[in-house]
Amino acid sequence: QDERLDRAQHHKDKGTSLFQSGNVDFAIKRYNKALHYLRFMESGDLAVDLKLSFSKLRCQCLLNLAACYGKGNDYNAIIENCTAALQLEQDNVKGLFRRGQAYLALHEYEKAKYDFLAAKEKEPENKAVHNQLKAVDDLAKKEKKVYQKMFS
Question: Which range scores top for mean pLDDT: 8-12, 51-55, 148-152?
Fold first, then answer.
């Protein structure tokens, strides 16, 4: 069990290096490989500390995958990976923020606002979250005006 966790960590670290050097496609492969090792650990009876390590690493890999997909503007993949990460850590600000950005890009303003408000609740001083909340409101108002002009 520990060996699988170590291998998963190794692949996650390699993925991070690849991502930082701009090699997104290979980073995605490494994060998926890490998740592959972690999948085998789901079914086993794990000690509590190992379960926590497993869950934390899995969440990191999912959020890193979301960041990779963000480089290619694959908003549905971002939402999918962030949602999976948030099932592991429901208060993860990074997950809420990235998913909110993806919803915003897809013009799903209510869902974006929900995620940004949840992130704001966890980190009230986070300027990026405040900026995104303002962007949601501005874009929603702008879109509403466009529709009003179209149908008036």
Answer: 8-12
Contacts of the segment 111-114: beta carbons below 8 A, 24+ positions apart? 112/136, 113/137, 113/140
- d(Cα 123, Cα 150) in Å, to the nearest integer? 39
Least Cα distance to 137 among 116, 113, 118, 117 occurs for 113
Contacts for 85 with CB less than 8 Å, ≥ 6 apart: 58, 59, 62, 63, 66, 92, 95
Residue 44 has a pLDDT of 61
DSSP character for 112? H
Model confidence, pTM: 0.90
Q: Report whether pLDDT(43) > 60.
A: no
In terms of Cα–Cα distance, which of 74, 73, 3 is closest to 38? 3
Q: What is the mean pLDDT of residues 6-20?
A: 96
Question: Tell me, what DSSP letter sits at residue 70?
Answer: H
58 close to 92: Cβ distance less than 8 angstroms: no
Residue-wise DSSP of 114-138: HHHHHHHHH-TT-HHHHHHHHHHHH
